[in-house]
Amino acid sequence: MIRYILRRLAAGVVLLLVVTMVVFAIFFLVPRLAGIDSDGLAARYVGKSPSPEAIAAVKERLNLDEPITVQYGEFVSGLVMGTEYDSGTDVIHCDAPCFGYSFKTNTEVWPQLVDRLPVTGSLAIGAAVIWVVAGVSIGVLSALRRGSLLDRAAMITALAGVSLPIFFTGLVSLALLSYYWPIFPPGGSYTGITENPLAWAHALVLPWVTLAFLYAAMYARLTRAGMLDTMGEDFIRTARAKGLPERTVVTKHGLRAALTPIITIFGLDFGLMLGGAVLTESTFSLPGLGKFAVDAIRGNDLPVVLGVTMLTAAFVVVCNLIVDVLYAWVDPRVRVGA
Amino acid sequence: MTDPVVSVNDLRITFPTLEGRLTAVDGVSFEVPAGGAVGIVGESGSGKSATSLALMGLHRGTNAEVTGDITVTGTNINTASDHRVRDMRGNDIAMVFQDPMSSLHPQYTIGNQLIEAFKVHRPGSSVADARKRAVESLDRVGIPNAAQRINSYPHEFSGGMRQRALIAMGLMCEPTVLLADEITTALDVTVQAQILDLLDDLRSDLGMSLILVSHDLAVVAGSVDEVLVMQTGSIVERGDVRDVLSSPEHPYTKTLLAAVPRVDVSRAQRRAQVREERRQPISEEQGEQAKRAQRARRRADAEGDARLGGAAAKPEKSEADAPLLSVRNARMRFKVRGGLLGGASDFYAVDDVSFDLYQGETLGIVGESGSGKSTLSRMVTRLLNPTSGQIVFEGRDITRLPERKLRPLRRDIQMIFQNPYSSLNPRVTIGDSIGAGLRVQGENDTKQIQRKVQELLERVGLEASHYNRFPHAFSGGQRQRIAIARALILRPKLVICDEPVSALDVSTQDQVLRLLDELQDDFDLTYIFVAHDLAVVRQVSDRVAVMRKGEVVELDHSDTVYESPRHDYTRELLTAAPVLDPVEARKHRAQRAELRRQSTAA
């Protein structure tokens, strides 16, 4: 088991390294291949009205005149060990992990990411709890009462959930439950959980439910399909033949097998969401990573975009790793096979 | 006399289908005395499984409609409450299912699944008690190191061990009746014999009643007192097993009996018998297609008789020529991962195997699962590349031939696979499946392909109009005919049959074997016939190779192998083969017990 985890960890580190290469290539190599020289590249980083001095400073700071391998080396060592920028007048330390400086605010990217993480984290965790509990239980009930009114109603709702975009459901819920009947605070209100847990939860209810609705719908359909398959398996018949009560047959024998693929998908979904639920955060004006990224893209603030991309990738890799380890625990067959 | 523990009276089970209600079981009545053993025999679709599920009340909650009376240990299963029926399942009547691969939950340990079966009926008992009981039960069914193996997962057990674990599960609460549904169908002969011996022991030791359900009369012969033969939902014959098997009355029982492959019937005898039957005039309902087939056979018969002076002489004659296929010192190595340091160790699935195969003969390869027989057949077709050794086909070394050069040869070497349910693509019509070979070999004229395929469909006993149907519309036997047509469409010289009949009922098995025999005559085919069933192999093979752990332990003319086996392992296999005569079967059982005693003493 330990060996399995170590092997998956090593694979995770390699994967992250590959991710840095791809991200680096997208931001530094591809524009160059498209014929943009180092001045042009630096100009993009400077912002709207580049002065020759600013361009030279950026070129210097990002080593844009060096060969691409050296640039990549600097980039990675900045991530791992931090780096120093010499701006001419003084030396600025950028501690690891260094994603560089935002040109908009002229502050380090990393602390800004860390600032916004709790918002996205609160949103993702709360929504995940809702969607897993709701999605799986609705899926199970639907599968057991296949063809019933409940099944049909649930599946139609699920279809609506999958097809309605968040900026629609989000805006409608805000309009109704915040402006028309002021039950929940308007968009943009966020209080840290440490400051006031009640206000924190109150402000997040609408975003949670909106986001969870989409995912719960998908998970309900997945669970339903999985349960329908599993309940037809021979081992379910064996469980019934033992004289087990139907509840045990469904939960212990049926659900356990049906959940295995859902865990895999959950790992991916959750990891991706920790990197920013772009639509939800934008709709509810929550100051999370997703909104941060969108604003950065609008302002051509490439270091920030790069930082969010890397962080998202890291989250997905880590969540996948956790899922792989969980998988070995959930499904004993994986332990020997791997 | 005490009351019977199971009594079934006028049982009727119907299922709704698109074409109205289908009657699966139609007025079945029988009784099982305390401590007695009853066998239920019939083909798939005869209603035997529906009957056994009804005994457990397992049709509840499905759309099956069950009428009639089923009384198990004094309770009427049909009218009792759900709660009462649940209490009885596993406690009064326990069922052991076929296919131990899928009947155990893959994500729980064997112990967990056994303990659960105990605790549900003994709510007051402690986990330690239940665990102790599980270890005893596993020990009872012959799982070595039961106390440790209880923590294993199903995938860590072999097929035979899983079947034992399922039986152990059935024994947890010491039920009055044990209901075993096709429990040996998926198993090797030696394991099958062990499991049947085990059931017999359990019956005498624990005084349990046994209901043994199977499609194979030979399986129930040595294990039950009374046998019921079922056909399309009704019992057509019943009686003492010795009487039914020695002097069957109903024609269906006779057909079933005749279909059972027998280890003591040689190929020559069977061929003679089949030819005799073929010469008989064709009856009306067999129709045009059979007549055409018969003409072809007559031709082949005349030819064969003239050339060989009788079928039995076949191999002697051919050996003068150069062999069609020659396998020299073939080895196949697999790396097995595992071990504490993750190092791979070598495992030879096929180890230094050599044989020659002559035009027109059939080489049977017999062995248990894991003996390397499938690996060997895959090496001959180059689906696997041998680690070392040589494969020479028609004088040409094909061992290292690149795929591009191999493709024309694929025309000459074809395979028929075991599972007719999974080896046909369900989304492709059978016409396309069969015709694909022609297409790959460069035939582009769709009309021409269709004509050839339809001809062949008729030849293998299907209809030309089946061309556009999908595999799900066919029964297991028909699918195997499709698989045969698929292999023969290119007019190969060598056909490798990998367990072609092991997934089929005995009567269907017989038909498919006959077809293979006829086709061999008509198309002058050479077969390699791989199977674990000794009797089947004997009936089709001129020569037989017995494989064990990747090696051929014995290779000779089939009569020699079966009548005077030289290797101990061959002898062991032969005593394990099920026999039809109940008296003989019990004698074999005693022999096996003796062999076991010797091996434990040694």
Automatic annotation (TrEMBL), chain A:
InterPro entries: BPD_transp_1_N, MetI-like, MetI-like_sf
GO biological process, one term: transmembrane transport
Membrane topology: Multi-pass membrane protein
Top-level taxon of the source organism: Bacteria
One Pfam assignment: BPD_transp_1
GO cellular component: plasma membrane
Localisation: Cell membrane
Keywords (A to Z) from UniProt: Cell membrane, Membrane, Transmembrane, Transmembrane helix, Transport
Keyword Electron transport: no
Coiled coil: none
Cross-referenced Gene3D superfamilies: MetI-like (1.10.3720.10)
Boundaries of every ABC transmembrane type-1 domain copy: 117-327
Residues passing through the membrane, by range: 9-30, 123-144, 156-180, 200-220, 257-279, 304-330
Entry similarity comment: Belongs to the binding-protein-dependent transport system permease family.
Protein name: ABC transporter permease
Lineage of the species this protein comes from: Bacteria, Bacillati, Actinomycetota, Actinomycetes, Streptosporangiales
Automatic annotation (TrEMBL), chain B:
Biased composition (Basic and acidic residues): 273-282
The keyword Transport is assigned to this record: yes
The name this protein goes by in its record: ABC transporter ATP-binding protein
ATP-binding listed as a keyword: yes
One record GO biological process: peptide transport
Family that this chain belongs to: Belongs to the ABC transporter superfamily.
InterPro entries recorded: AAA+_ATPase (IPR003593), ABC_transp_ATP-bind (IPR050319), ABC_transporter-like_ATP-bd (IPR003439), ABC_transporter-like_CS (IPR017871), Oligopep_ABC_C (IPR013563), P-loop_NTPase (IPR027417)
PANTHER family referenced in this protein's UniProt entry, alphabetically: D,D-DIPEPTIDE TRANSPORT ATP-BINDING PROTEIN DDPF-RELATED, TRANSPORT ATP-BINDING PROTEIN
Single GO molecular function: ATP hydrolysis activity
Pfam families, sorted: ABC_tran, oligo_HPY
Residues covered by region (Disordered): 269-320
Residue ranges annotated for the ABC transporter domain, each copy included: 6-257, 327-574
Organism of this sequence: Streptomonospora alba
Keywords for the protein's UniProt record, in alphabetical order: ATP-binding, Nucleotide-binding, Transport
